[in-house]
């Protein structure tokens, strides 16, 4: 009986410690983003040296620690996201040329960065505060994003965000307005603003040569959200296969 209680206590403490570390890395996300992208910036290169490799190493290390302290499900999401985001980069950057990086090559840190963005939004969405204020947050998020898309569309002529902002809301409606996608979208907007500010990448002024867009367009969150939906389906299928294997 004593041994069982001791084991449960150790398990609970380890689980609690992991939860705190996940929150720590998620909370550190904005600062890490500014540091990593600042080192890869054009200005850093002009003043010091090309910091791309440093940023690559920092992103992989940060991802590794975040991954290590995550639970099994989040680990699967992060792992798959690395590969899924690289495919997305090949489609949207290389094939469709919706944006381009400061070099011709897609940086190594980008797929790991996407996984960090997703994991951070995931952790935020599953905090006690977010869960307990779920309904209220849905209202504020919906109003805030609607105002954002309309503002950039009207004042900055960002037709891209107006169009894909509508698709973003349609997608969220299908996902029952889960705050998870809003939290991830906030992280996406932050990293997009930081990346374009430091000139790590730049969105083209006319997507597909037709749709006017700012740099960065806020409507880009739709493509991230679409990728997130696909990610959850892939991991869900993975877990289902694992469960079937264990039962056989």
From TrEMBL:
Keywords: Membrane, Transmembrane, Transmembrane helix. The chain crosses the membrane at residues 77-99, 140-172, 179-198, 218-238. This is Uncharacterized protein.
């Amino acid at each position: 009986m004593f041994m069982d209680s001791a084991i449960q206590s150790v398990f609970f403490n380890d689980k609690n410690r992991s939860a705190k570390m996940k929150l720590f890395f998620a909370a550190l996300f904005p600062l890490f983003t500014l540091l990593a992208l600042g080192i890869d910036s054009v200005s850093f290169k002009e003043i010091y040296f090309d910091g791309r490799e440093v940023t690559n190493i920092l992103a992989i290390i940060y991802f590794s620690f975040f991954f290590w302290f995550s639970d099994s499900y989040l680990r699967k999401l992060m792992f798959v996201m690395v590969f899924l985001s690289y495919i997305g980069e090949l489609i949207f950057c290389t094939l469709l040329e919706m944006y381009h990086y400061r070099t011709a090559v897609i940086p190594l840190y980008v797929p790991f960065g996407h996984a960090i963005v997703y994991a951070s939004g995931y952790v935020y969405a599953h905090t006690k505060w977010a869960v307990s204020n779920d309904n209220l947050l849905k209202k504020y998020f919906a109003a805030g994003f609607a105002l954002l898309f309309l503002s950039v569309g009207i004042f900055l002529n960002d037709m891209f965000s107006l169009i894909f902002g509508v698709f973003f809301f349609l997608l969220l409606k299908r996902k029952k307005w889960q705050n998870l996608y809003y939290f991830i979208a906030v992280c996406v907007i932050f990293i997009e603003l930081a990346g374009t500010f430091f000139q790590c990448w730049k969105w083209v002024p006319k997507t597909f040569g037709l749709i006017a867009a700012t740099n960065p367009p806020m409507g880009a969150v739709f493509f991230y959200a679409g990728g997130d939906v696909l990610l959850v389906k892939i991991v869900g299928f993975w877990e289902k296969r694992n469960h079937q294997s264990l039962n056989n």
